[in-house]
Design brief:
single chain; about 120 residues; mainly alpha; 6 helices; globular
Length: about 120
């Protein structure tokens, strides 16, 4: 049976994969984001996946990293998944531009410290 630590490290690897894809997709910046509806949809789906992976991490992981904004990420996931027609893409870009890099940096540091990957 796989331990929670091992499972969390596998999930962190998957999270890093999602972060890399999101980074690649947002590389064109705000103008490209707003010019392409498919890009907005693709990034939204990746953010949903990222949230699901974060939610799948063990309670022990969340207890060890209480500053991680998991609740806020889950809230964003719920908006994207259940109120898609009402998504404020200006606000979502703000989250991607301002909050996402902080979360990404935090997750990369955690993965590195845990030798995940």
């Amino acid at each position: 049976m796989i331990s929670n630590t091992e499972r969390d490290n596998v999930l962190l690897g998957e999270i890093l994969d999602e972060l890399a894809i999101i980074d690649k997709r947002i590389a064109g910046g705000k103008e490209a984001y707003f010019a392409d509806e498919n890009l907005r949809d693709a990034i939204s789906m990746r953010l949903i996946t990222l949230s699901e992976l974060l939610g799948a991490l063990s309670d022990e992981f969340h207890d060890a990293y209480p500053d991680m904004p998991t609740v806020r990420v889950r809230g964003l996931r719920n908006v994207l998944a259940h109120a898609y027609g009402k998504v404020d893409f200006e606000r979502l870009w703000s989250i991607i531009d301002e909050d996402y890099p902080i979360l990404a940096r935090q997750l990369k540091q955690i993965a590195s410290a845990r030798n995940a990957r």
